Each structure stands twice: as structure tokens, then as C-alpha cells.
Amino acid sequence: MEESSPMPQAAKIALGIALFFCAAFIICVAVGTPLFVNEQYKVLFYTKDLCHVKSASYQTIHGCIHDGGRKTVVTKCYLPVWQVELSQNVTHGGTIRGNAEESSNNALTASDHYQVGSSYACWYNKKKRHEITWYKPTTYYALILLIIGGICIPFTVISFVAFYRLRKRADL
Q1: I need a surface site. Which of 10, 22, 62, 158 has the fewest CB within 10 A?
Q2: 168 and 30 in contact (C-beta within 8 Å)?
Q3: Cα distances (Å, whole numbers) of residue 159 to 6, 9, 24
Q4: Which residue windows are transmembrane per the record (predicted)?
């Protein structure tokens, strides 16, 4: 009866490296692709304008997901909200919502960043003028993720090939 020899240590290391790069590739592509598609749409269809801030406040959201350490917790959070008018056509305006904050005081502080009665650069969707944001659309971060994912491909392939060749070698 023939005993099966254990896998050499070098093969285990090659497999670990291959799995690491494979996971990095999957994560980068899974996050980068939808981010790129969303931002590319904005780059194509959003245009710069000046937004005149009519009012600033916050909105309470009761379903925010918060990382509570060992478990995910659904909590209440607050979004800074600005009512704005576009300078090119004052009949068009909309609501800009900021990032979620943990307290109403933080949301009010964030909403003070854009003062009522002042005008600031903003970007709006040419097809849906009520979609407005303070931030210039960019695909920069999505492209970085996709490039990192692309760089992981050859390392994954090389590591899997090394694992395949090393797994049956008894002399290691």
C-alpha cells in the first residue's frame, strides 16, 4: 500500500501567494468596476456650474449601517443637506446630500461648510438637473483599483503555475 506524501512547504507557500493575489484581484475588480461605471457616467453627463445655497440643514436616517466591531449594527445617522439653485438657470435647483454623520451636531457642522447665501462650484447631471453634487466626478480612484487588479493577474498565474509544479515534488 502506497502512502501519499505530504505537500512540500514550497508548494504551500506558492498556493498561499496565489490565493492572496487572486483575492486581491477579485476585490479590486469587484469594487473598481461598479465605481468606474458610476463615475464614468458622471464624467460624461455632469457639467460644472455655480450653486447658490438657499438653505442648509440635516436629515435623520434610521437605517445606517455601522461597524460595531464583531457585528454590524443598524443605527440612526444624520446627513447634511443643502437646498441649492443653479446659477445658469435659477428655475432649476435641487438638494445636495453630504456624507452620513454619527451625530446631529456633526451634521450641522458639516452643513456649515457651504454657507447659506453663498455660491460654490458644483456639478449637475445635464439629463436630470435635480442630480447635483459638490464634488467633481472622477474615475481616478476606480482606475487605480482596476490597475492594481490587473497587476495581480500575472502574479496569480505565476504562483498557481509554481504551485502546480511544486505540489508533487518529493525532493523539496
Answers
A1: 62
A2: no
A3: 19, 14, 14
A4: 12-37, 140-164
For 84-113, what is each residue's pLDDT tens digit?
A: 988 866 567 888 888 888 888 888 888 888
Q: Cβ contacts of residue 172 below 8 Å, gap of 6+?
A: 8, 9, 10, 11, 166
pLDDT in tens, 21-75: 999 999 999 999 999 999 999 999 998 989 899 988 888 888 777 666 677 777 7
Cell of 81: 443637506
Q: Number of H helices and number of E strands within the chain? A: 3, 5
And the C-alpha cell for 1?
500500500
Residue positions counted in the chain: 172
Domain boundaries, the chain: 9-166
All 3 cell numbers of residue 5? Answer: 506524501
Output the average pLDDT for the chain. Answer: 85
Q: DSSP readout, 35-76?
A: HHHHHHHHHHHEEEEEEEEEEEEEEEEEEEEEE-SSSEEEEE
Q: pTM higher than 0.85, yes or no?
A: no
Q: Identity (one letter) of the amino acid at 62?
A: H
How far is 29 from 147, CA to CA, in rounded Å?
A: 9
Question: How many angstroms separate the CA atoms of 172 and 156, rounded?
Answer: 22
